[in-house]
Amino acid sequence: MKKLIILFFIIILTLIINPITSLPANAETTPLNPNPETLEHLTLEQLQQRINSPIISEGVRTIDLREFLIDLTPSNTEFRDRFYPLLQNQLNRSGTPIALDLSYSIIQGDFDGNELGLRAPLYGEAFLPLFSEQERSQLQRDRTRLARLSQLSRSLLGVPPEQVEITLFQEPIKLVHTHFMGEVHFNHSFFLNRVEAMGAIFDKLADWSETRFSKLSNFAGANFGSEARFQGSIFFQDIGFNQGLFQGTANFKATRFEGTGNFNQVQFKQDSNFTRSQWNRNADFSGCRWENPALFDRAKFAESLFLTETTFRNLASFRETAFNQSINLREASLRDRLAFSDTTFANSASINVAGLRFDSESARITGDPGQIGKKLSLPSLPGNETLLRQLVRNFRQQEQIADANQMEYLTEHLRQENLFHQLIKININTASRQQLIKLGLSEHQSDAIVRSQEERIFGSLSEVLNLPEIDLATYIQLRDRAVAGEPLSLPGWMRTAIHWLGLSALLLLTRYGTSFWLIFGVGLVAIAYFSVLFWFVDRYRRILPKPIIPTDFETPWMLSTCLGLASIGLFAIIRTSSEPLLTLTCLGILIIPIPTILIIILYKKGRYHNLIDSSYFVEDTGMRQLRLAIGRLPIIPRFPAMRERYLPLLWNRRWNWLNYYDFSLNNLLKFGFNDIRLRDEHLPGIISSLVWYQWTLGLLYLSLLLWTLSRTIPGLNLLIYLK
Length: 723
Prior knowledge:
alpha/beta; twelve-stranded parallel sheet; 19 helices; 52 strands
């Protein structure tokens, strides 16, 4: 019995192993790169047989010339002279167009693809039904352009125009892993169907200039050993050159991409010319590697341009280029100049430079002063601090102070956001199980994070991906609702809150010292407000029994000038502030609540003191001149003789209302035309508090103003340069 069982297993194993070892040789997979030694030479008899017996490939009748060695060299003249006519007659037979498949073949000698298509006059009407509406429009534009060129040639040289023809291909052309050892010419062709050239090898010139690709075409993985010429071509649908290799010049000058242009992970060994190219959909150059200059001058990008993880070892020029949407330079590497001179950006366009690396001393970004810095953007501060310092240095070396200041403003703006997130978001290192569940995590994921809290501190939120229970979807869910870092104690939280408040005020009032007109507008609004405030307190004393109020002439002048001055300040704030409403809110918090409370108390208590009919403010009658008053205090000296020198303001003068503006100038900007101060007798304490409050704000304002000037005027920026 045991012998029968053993014999049964031997027979079963023999039946299983024998079919595997006896498989035919043609069952092996086709190699990606054809080997000339293993390919069969195509003869005229085989060519005629393949033409007469087309196969069905993807539902289309196809002439199968795969895995052949096709000799089109001058030494094989007889075969070459009959090769093109035989194929052309069959490919363009009326009513029954046939595709051509040259995949995995090697073609020796020059390959003239134009000899295989259907020759049609550019100005004819017979073939118009074959074109779509978009293709007809383009054909009409081609006719107009060539007509103008012909007219110019005839007028200048006296040469009559030649009959211009185009080559039509109605069915697919397959060149998958085809090796062209000579030149390839498909110029001035119109492909009404797809072109498949994945992995094709072009040893010499590949001329596809002035060619129209109607359907989705694919050159993925193609190897261009010499010049690749696509200038003036149009891709009506998506085109793929991803993972390709351009060892020679890549010429895409004046090429138009109606669909997505995919150049992902392409290597450009020589110059690449995309000058005056037009991209109506996304252009993807992610992971590309440029060894020589990349020229995109005067190009137009209707949608996004992706340059993520791209390496530029030489110049990358985008001069006079138009961008309607964003440019993504995330994790890109620069070793030379990235030029954006005279570039046009739409309002929504920006340049994402997160993770950008300056990998050499000559690496730099250039652009129009005052514009390029505003277009650079970063999503967050952590991980980009070094990059921001390099960008500041980049623009300072080019003496583009406005752009360098913009980078510092961006740095502090991101720091403000980071501080705010630390204050309000849940820290993943201290979150309880219930808090994690409220964030959207499952109980199993919450338990995993709680266990990890006892073993480690998450330095960044991305570290939670190291936990097997946390997937990418969970991380994305946590990213906007949680933070990671050192836990904050109560004193630490208070310090962070104060830091955030101070930084927010600097950003809102001065753009972190980068906008003189913003801080100037803030000062104008503050001067107008305090001037009318002190005028009101000083002139509106009482109505009964004897009115002490301003004259009818004084009131409209004071109110109208206050309104005009405040309007100028508001205009400056709206034009220069990135968040005008928040800037006005911050300014209002500083100048409105405390003075309003003091004035309400003052009028509620009433004023019953001596010298009720005399101004609270006195002026130095010894001289009238424009003077700096940085160290001046808002009250007169205690020395009794000073009362003879400082006399009350003259209420009966028509120009008296100007003194209140002068007083605010003295307190806020520390200069004025007259030395106006508070009197030192019979003065309500609330009036004194108001003046001292304005004087204190004036010290802070003057500091911010001088700091801003030192950062925005090159002459005052010497210390920053030396640093």
